[in-house]
# Entry
Amino acid sequence: MSGKRLVTESDVRALARGAELVVPPDTLVTPAAADLAFERAIRIVRRKADAAGGGCSCGGSCGKCGAWGKLLASDGTYVVVVKNGVASIARLTEQGPVPFS
# Structure
């Protein structure tokens, strides 16, 4: 874990209920910290590695940019599969799942 920062349960306890925690891409959040954040309605926002280069720095969470923006702009039923830390989205159609792009 050399070079990685860690967000722990005690870090989350120091935040006010309902706060927002912006996490850089090289930072790990412990499962206990994530659970406590959920319990205390603290929103964890993961910043993209290229966010410093301009544009939106929401990490895709604002719903106005990236895949989430496209997803939220089109009604439908979707399946999200996460494998090895990579998410893929498919729209469910009568013919079966179709990759979402």
